């Protein structure tokens, strides 16, 4: 019994030892296999890490390029905004200057229009006054031509002719022009002898209400003249001559006793 028990114990020990060896071998194989798997996993992880680093590097480079482009675009935008602001300021300044120039031009135009209107009114007033004076003078000449006027005798041989021919005394005559030039005027009134008036630059000559020269007086015009006898030469010097070139024909007034109508000669006694 004891011998058999010994063999049983020995067999159990061998079996136990064999089992232990098998387990050890299986553990060693499993450890080796696990180590290989870990290495593969580490290599794969390292590869993935390197790929991630490459991707990150490329993304960083791309981000850096995009940042540079953004900075350049921002600088370009700032430059354009600055140029736009400067152009806007210039445009506003030019608009203000144009507005000021337009206002100044409008003021000058209004002032010129006012001055032109004032000058036109003055010219119209002066023209109306001249026309009125001309009408008054023409009416006076017409009325005077219808009235008998005492005719001053023509000077002969430079000698005085009666008390009205005193030297330096202004006299008047109304008559018809026989001839006229810038130096003298030859008149005839109511058929009386002719009177030759000397004309000087100081003589005031009016023709139909306007200032003129003696040479412009037409033959046959009606004239009212003021004259003085020169103290040295004894010639009648015209002071003022008022001529009417066109006189409306009127019916002659009935002559009073002892008077004749203009242009007719008194009958010889």
Report on this structure.
- It is built from 1 helix and 7 strands.
- It has one helix spanning 2-146, and strands at residues 171-180, 184-188, 195-198, 204-207, 210-211, 222-229, 236-244.
- The chain has a 7-stranded mixed beta sheet, with helices on one face.
- Mean pLDDT is 77; it is low at 147-165 and 248-269.
- With 269 residues, it is an alpha+beta fold.
Give the SSE order as H and E letters: HEEEEEEE
Strand order of the largest sheet: 3-2-1-6-7-4-5
What are the segments in which pLDDT stays under 50 over at least 5 consecutive residues?
Answer: 147-165, 248-269
Rg over alpha carbons: 69 Å
Q: What is the residue-averaged pLDDT?
A: 77
Percent helix: 40-55%
In total, the number of strands is: 7
Discrete helix count: 1
Task: Indicate the proportion of strand residues.
Answer: 15-25%
- Largest beta-sheet details: 7 strands, mixed
Overall geometry: rod-shaped
* Class of secondary structure makeup: alpha+beta
Tell me the span between the first and last alpha carbons. Answer: 230 Å
Key words describing this protein structure:
269 residues; alpha+beta; seven-stranded mixed β-sheet; disordered C terminus
Topology:
Layout: H1 2-146, E1 171-180, E2 184-188, E3 195-198, E4 204-207, E5 210-211, E6 222-229, E7 236-244
Parallel strand pairs: 4-7
Antiparallel strand pairs: 1-2, 1-6, 2-3, 4-5, 6-7
What is shown here, in short?
The protein has one helix at 2-146; strands spanning 171-180, 184-188, 195-198, 204-207, 210-211, 222-229, 236-244.
